[in-house]
Design a protein that fits this description.
TIM Barrel; 8-stranded parallel beta barrel; 19 helices; FAD binding
Length: 502
Amino acid sequence: CHSSGTSPRQSPSPSHNKQAAGNVSASAAASTSASASASESDLVSHHLAAAPTTPTTLATMPPRVPIPPLSILPLTSIVRTWVITTISSTRLLTPSLAALSIIAHAQGPILSPERNRYLRYLIKKTIYKQFCAGENDAEVKQTVDGLLKLGYKGVILGYAKEVVMNESQAGKLNESHAGKLESSGDNDAAKACIRNEINPWAQGTLRTVQMTSPGDFVGLKFTGAGSQALFDLSKKTGPSAALKEAIDSICDLAAARDVRLLFDAEQQAVQAGIDAWTLRYMREYNGKTPGKAVVYGTYQAYLKATPSILASHLAAARKDGFTLGVKLVRGAYLGSDPRHLIHDTKAETDDCYDSISASLARRSYGSVLKPAPGETEFPPVDVVLAGHNHTSVRKIRALRDEQAKNGGEQIDLVYAQLQGMADEVSCDLVLAGRVNAGETKVDIPKAYKYLVWGTTGECMKYLLRRAQENKDAVQRTRDGRKAHTAEVWRRIKATFGFGPRF
């Protein structure tokens, strides 16, 4: 993950894997080869490390202890997550959110983390470290290397600069012509927009692509390019000349480095424009290599219109002969998107997400993802399933295990969770990937972590959204806290000999 040049992605070292699997001896591995295709809960335990060298029947072997998914994480990460989820699932969250919102929008010398070094240090050592990759190339590389050593297949890296509007601001944007700078005749204003907004965003995103390795993803948020991008998107026009040049350069570099781009979904005031731009760049870049997507669009399952929008994009992919890149999420703008556009219940959102993911994995239409009029053939798709719901992940894993068992065709699919969240889901995927490695009759899940980089000040709005997301998912946050609490107690008991060490 150097800032220049391309370095091959290093997989976890054999010594690391040996240690993570409980120092399984060669003789023990040989004696248990008959159960190599067992599930991850039966494969590795502390008992295997002490397996006898004399023949032992299955009836006399001691029971095996499953590896807890969170056992692969360092203690500092466990404790930090426990503290944050404890705050997020109690009444402390409301005042914490209020304080974080003030800091995220502060410009003064006391409350701005860019101007107050003591506040910056406090934030960077707590919530910033939990959710973000770093402020520069060296810090990002250290964070990414740590994830790879744990067993993640790669990362989704994003540049933190973004613009988040409330519903009132979004409404004013649609009525405004202030953003139409490049064609307004005001050369000074246009040059200032390019110099102060578009160019810094482009440079930051290009640097992000350079930080990643082949096979990684880069998240791209168009509104980070500023007022011109906001105007173009809200009016559903193509990008202005300077903005188009910037996006083209980002896509060209990503394609050359074998890095994939995730065009982020944003608020509904600009989402229709983002959909149009996404299809435009998919047509240009996803048809160059058959069966491989460079550009992915983001589809939010909590929106009622998502199945029909995705169906129309699938029809376009079939007609124009390109692979549709799909990043499926539940949604992240519940607090700002118009409520009537969103499913009425969480159960409806869950059903939409699960049904779409199953249709994509099977490459077949269903009761939720229905074909566009006149369509019957399902085009090639590459998929990123981004989500923290363990039930949804288990459903799609079971489907893909069945496909692998029967020798069926499988699409390119990876799982992604946000850095600092849903570690119990991510670590379960990582362990399954380790256990299933080399198997042919079971799916080998590929787990990725999504994280952003940037200065503490640049990351504040992103951190605020993560905190708000925890507020909107209280039960999931409580489940995460329980899982981390159990892991802390397990390690304490193991220290005093009351349980296995992993």
